[in-house]
Design a protein that fits this description.
This protein has 382 residues and is of the alpha+beta class. The chain has eight helices and twelve strands. Helix 2 crosses helix 3 and helix 4 crosses helix 7. This is Fe-S oxidoreductase.
């Protein structure tokens, strides 16, 4: 229409012209097969950059393309998947596997931002961590914003003589619309466990051997169980007041990570297939505070005690070189980021306990005076 500026033209995906995106502060050159539908390129809509910005970065872009062998293997393993789904899965594996050599790793969970600081929650199943993050949003209001859900990019950043970890949203979101193209300093990584899964031995979410789930390095599959195996250094549960969560350091050294990794990949499906869990206008309301519910437990642990648990939520490349880079970066992330284990439920005291411990602020002082149900969907975090 005359008098109106023309819209920004983005690089169009084709066999000749790759789609250029900026993800976690790095440019990516993504080659999408010509037979893919618009649903594939729509996965990267929030991360695509204008043509005139392409190539302006100081470092070379990370090149990502679906490997023909990977597509063939996926099609053989999942004959019911659509062509778009196969392409997206192949692109995801190629991108996440390339990151460790570029100084980044991908971990599974939901990451939220509170006052310019990011807090990452991981759990099996992922929905448990999502519900806990939603408690923060429910009781603290719009000051809690989403960074990303699904695969989160972690990067060790140097500032002068000091280093810190940043968290970024990625296109590989677990829920439609649950990701932002932002990078925020990470101030805590919390592993969420259900209080009902903590047995008398204190091993949160201990699972029977028959329900164990493992994946090979670089694979992207759904596990057969929603519970992780028992942590390396279990702790007996101790009842604590929600208003005064305690910090307990652990000096137990975790066993080295094995080549067989329990699955944490609630990987995103094709954009054309909405998640049945959050489809429609379902609402989220925290559980009522039953008097018999155990008090939440929040422990800040020594990084050496969290290696095994952190590896469960990490994407492992298929090559030995990639695995070496990934584990080296994970060591740095754990040394620079406070790590916590949360055992509790889905009530207001649980949100109060984790909030006070992770942020050091008073939950009562920051809590919203009126708490309303959340509408779950693509715009939950708007």
């Amino acid at each position: 229409m005359a008098g109106q500026p023309s819209p920004i033209q983005l690089s169009q995906p084709s066999s000749a012209s790759p789609l250029v995106c900026e993800i976690a502060g790095r440019q990516h050159s993504i080659r999408i097969p010509a037979d893919a539908t618009d649903a594939v390129s729509a996965q990267f809509d929030d991360f695509a950059i204008p043509d005139w910005l392409a190539g302006a970065a100081s470092s070379r872009p990370i090149r990502v393309a679906p490997a023909a062998a990977a597509l063939t293997e996926l099609a053989r393993a999942h004959p019911h998947w659509s062509r778009d789904r196969l392409i997206l899965e192949s692109l995801q594996t190629a991108m996440l596997s390339a990151w460790p050599t570029q100084g980044m790793i991908a971990v599974n969970g939901i990451c939220i931002e509170y006052r310019e600081r990011a807090y990452l929650f991981s759990s099996l199943p992922t929905a448990r961590a999502e519900r806990h993050a939603l408690l923060w949003r429910q009781y603290l209001g719009d000051v809690v914003r989403l960074v990303g859900d699904g695969w989160i990019a972690l990067h060790v950043t140097r500032s002068g003589r000091s280093s810190y970890v940043t968290a970024s949203g990625t296109p590989w979101r677990g829920r439609r619309g649950w990701s932002r193209n932002v990078t925020v300093p990470l101030d805590g990584w919390c592993f969420v466990h259900d209080a009902a899964g903590a047995g008398a031995s204190g091993s949160p979410d201990a699972e029977p051997a028959s329900a164990a789930m493992t994946i090979t390095a670089g694979a992207s599959v759904r596990g057969t169980s929603d519970k992780p195996s028992a942590p390396t250094a279990p702790h007996a549960p101790v009842a604590r007041s929600a208003s005064t969560p305690a910090i307990r350091a652990s000096g137990v050294t975790a066993a080295p990570a094995s080549a067989s990794i329990p699955a944490a990949n609630d990987h995103p499906s094709s954009p054309a297939v909405p998640s049945p869990v959050f489809a429609g206008q379902a609402s989220f309301a925290p559980a009522s505070g039953a008097s018999t519910a155990p008090a939440p437990q929040v422990d800040r642990l020594n990084p050496s005690a969290m290696v095994d648990e952190a590896v469960r939520f990490m994407h492992m490349p298929a090559t030995a070189t990639g695995v070496g880079h990934a584990l080296s970066l994970l060591d740095k992330v754990l040394l620079l980021t406070p790590t916590y284990r949360f055992i509790g439920g889905e009530r207001e005291p649980d949100a109060a306990a984790s909030f006070a411990e992770l942020t050091g602020e008073s939950f009562d002082d920051c809590r919203e005076p009126f708490v309303l149900p959340l509408i779950l969907g693509p715009h939950t975090w708007d």
